[in-house]
Write a structure and sequence with these properties.
- 35% of the residues are buried.
- This protein starts with a helix and ends with a helix.
- The longest helix has 47 residues.
- With 610 residues, it is α/β, with parallel strands linked by helices.
- The protein is built from 21 helices and eight strands.
- The chain folds into three domains: 274 residues, P-loop containing nucleotide triphosphate hydrolases (Rossmann fold, 3-Layer(aba) Sandwich); 242 residues, Dynamin, middle domain (Four Helix Bundle (Hemerythrin (Met), subunit A)); 31 residues.
- Helix 15 runs parallel beside helix 18.
- Helix 5 links the parallel strand 6 and strand 7.
- The protein binds guanosine-5'-triphosphate.
- The site of guanosine-5'-triphosphate has 22 residues, from helix 2 and helix 7.
Length: 610
């Protein structure tokens, strides 16, 4: 099952490539779920020395102040005996570093690339893989040393920033803490132990490491700690002797120093009985074994987390919609598809399936007849007005039999009233159509992402509806005008001839004649106008539907399509300018989904290989 650490290593690298370093993004994180060994300790406690002796190589930057300013994810891969050792950085794939002093330089340079020369810290990890026959499979994360004071050139906040970064790692329940404490200091004040006690009070995730055992005052020893009495942890404490500053200066190599360390324990009167469980080689083996077992235990949990996150991300992506095409042809296609989606919904509103179209019928069935009924014909055809109009039409010679001109003027005047309801019907339908356009845009889910295109479609539709309204008005008014331009002759021919009956006994016979004569004229005109009203009640809706509703259904966006065809790539792109926050979010989700899918493949492949 050695391959489990290798698998997790690969997933860890994918996390860094795809921008998952845990932390505060509102995306699901895999990084945080992966078990790892994190090295913590105060400045100069010997962290770098421990890492180097586990690896058996000099490769970490040295210097004063805070040298480690980005997390270093150190992945150790055991290779066959006899093969050459080399290091490889994730940010420089395919470049093999066989000279480990160049590894040190690259760590320094890469740290500066991210943080500048400002000596700030950054949470973005550097990934270094070391392939060597002298290592065990293990992943260690080196973090900046906990410090109490900022040095020159560093902001005051750095003390707190480092603590927060270290804390963010050690807080994770999947983190194995390698707490480094120098034996020549008071252990009660050890930063590493203090922090690990806080986040892991039962000590099940903490490995205590005591460095600098060789530097303890003569006559003192750390047996109480190493045997687990002074500071009990679930795992046994491991004592270490690294190279001293003098050894480093003398260029004592790591292999020699490992040998020296072995010697120290084997020959020590204090620690001789613990010799087989001390030293950096032993530490590496224990950690590797422990990491394996933690990974094995966590694998089912990680797998279900991966599956759940894939589902969530896929759901979110389908909600966010596909990303926008980049070339003009595809953009035009997308815009046309979006327009069609809108058009489909608009038609559903008119044809039924969605509400709204029925209100147009309401205009014809209710509003128009009511408006026609309310026209003021009674006033227009009052005796007084009839007399006035007829007399005026007659001029100096009153009519002899029937007042032809009088009739015409009265009818003309009455028909003129029909213009009002005709125009009102056109306007009422216009506003209903406008409202349906507004609703259809709002209901077109696909358009939601594109506020600019939405506005353009609204403007184009509104402009088209305006045109239809003008045309409809012309047509309906023309129908009214047509009624007055040629009267139905038959109607008048069929009128019964005047026969005088009854009348008012108190008025003179001339008056009586005149009054009933005018009354009859009024009633004739009234029934003619009634006949026209019936006709218009049927023909106005036909004209309105023909000019407005039918046009809206068939050619609402025709002009817009013609304009679209003339647009250049840049203008098309402008129509599709999505909300930038949305674009960003989609990109993040796509990357994270890629990570989870590759992690799933990695895990599947080890499970199948078992
Ligand atoms: N004699 C002796 N010296 C040690 C031991 N461990 C570390 N040192 C020395 O202590 C100094 C600090 O060690 P580092 O390994 O650089 O400590 P660090 O925790 O990585 O330090 P920073 O990265 O600066 O926080 C170096 O000069 C080491 O040679 C040890 O076990 N014995």
């Amino acid at each position: 099952m050695e391959s489990l650490i290798v698998t997790v290593n690969r997933i860890q690298r994918a996390c860094t490539v795809l921008g998952d370093h845990g932390g505060d993004t509102n995306l699901p994180t895999l990084w945080e779920a992966l078990p790892s060994v994190v090295v913590v300790g105060g400045q100069s406690s010997g962290k770098s020395s421990v890492l180097e002796s586990i690896v058996g190589r000099d490769f970490l930057p040295r210097g004063s102040g805070i040298v480690t300013r980005r997390p270093l994810v150190l992945q150790l891969h055991k290779t066959e005996r006899g093969l050459q050792e080399y290091g490889e950085f994730l940010h420089l794939p395919k470049k093999k570093f066989t000279d480990f002093s160049m590894v040190r330089k690259e760590i320094q340079d890469e740290t500066d690339r991210m943080t500048g020369k400002s000596k700030q810290i950054s949470p973005v990890p550097i990934h270094l893989s070391i392939y060597s026959p002298n290592v065990v499979n293990l992943t260690l994360i080196d973090l900046p040393g906990l410090t109490k004071v900022a040095v020159e050139g560093q902001p005051e906040s750095i003390v707190q920033d480092i603590e927060s970064m270290v804390r963010s790692y050690v807080e994770k329940p999947n983190c194995i803490i390698l707490a480094i404490t120098p034996a020549n200091q008071d252990i009660a004040t050890s930063d590493a132990i203090k922090l690990s006690r806080e986040v892991d009070p039962t000590g099940e995730r903490t490995f205590g490491v005591l460095t600098k055992l060789d530097l303890m005052d003569k006559g003192t020893n750390a047996i109480d700690v190493l045997e687990g009495r002074a500071y009990p942890l679930q795992h046994p404490w491991v004592g270490i002797v690294n190279r001293s500053q003098a050894d480093i200066k003398k260029n004592v190599d790591m292999i020699a120093s490992r040998w020296k360390e072995r010697e120290f324990f084997a020959s020590s009167p204090d620690y001789g009985h613990l010799a087989s469980k001390m030293g950096s080689e032993y530490l590496a083996k224990v950690l590797s074994k422990h990491l394996e077992s933690v990974i094995r235990a966590r694998l089912p949990g990680i797998t279900s987390l991966i599956n759940k996150s894939i589902e969530e991300l896929e759901a979110e992506l389908s909600h966010l919609g596909r990303s926008v095409a980049v070339d003009a042809g595809a953009q035009l296609y997308t815009i046309l598809e979006l327009c069609r989606a809108f058009d489909r919904i608009f038609k559903e509103h008119l044809d039924g399936g969605r509400p709204g179209g029925d209100r147009i019928y309401g205009v014809f069935d209710h509003q128009l007849p009511a408006a026609l009924r309310k026209l003021p014909f009674d006033r227009h055809l009052s005796l007084q007005n009839i007399r006035k109009v007829v007399s005026e039409a007659d001029g100096y010679q009153p009519h002899l039999i029937a007042p032809e001109q009088g009739y015409r003027r009265l009818i003309d005047g009455a028909l003129n009233y029909f213009r009002g309801p005709a125009e009102a019907s056109v306007d009422a339908v216009h506003f209903l159509l406008k409202e349906l356009v507004r609703r259809s845009i709002a209901e077109t889910q696909e358009l939601k992402r594109f506020p600019t295109l939405q506005a353009e479609i609204a403007a184009a539709a509104s402009e088209a509806l305006e045109r239809f309204r003008e045309d409809s008005k012309k047509t309906t008014l023309r129908m009214v005008d047509m009624e007055s331009s040629y009267l139905t002759v038959d109607f008048f021919r069929k009128l019964p001839q005047e026969v005088e009956k009854g009348g008012n006994p108190t008025s003179s016979s001339v008056d009586r004649y005149a009054e009933s004569h005018f009354r009859r004229i009024g009633s004739n005109v009234y029934s003619y106008v009634g006949m026209v009203s019936d006709t218009l009640r049927n023909t106005i809706p036909k004209a309105v539907v023909y000019c407005q509703v039918r046009e809206a259904k068939h050619s609402l966006l025709d002009h817009f399509y013609i304009q679209l065809g003339k647009k250049e790539g840049k203008q098309l792109a402008q129509l599709l300018d999505e909300d930038p926050a949305l674009m960003e979010r989609r990109q993040q989700c796509v990357k994270r989904l890629e990570l989870y899918k590759s992690a799933r493949d990695e895990i599947d492949s080890v499970l199948w290989a078992r």
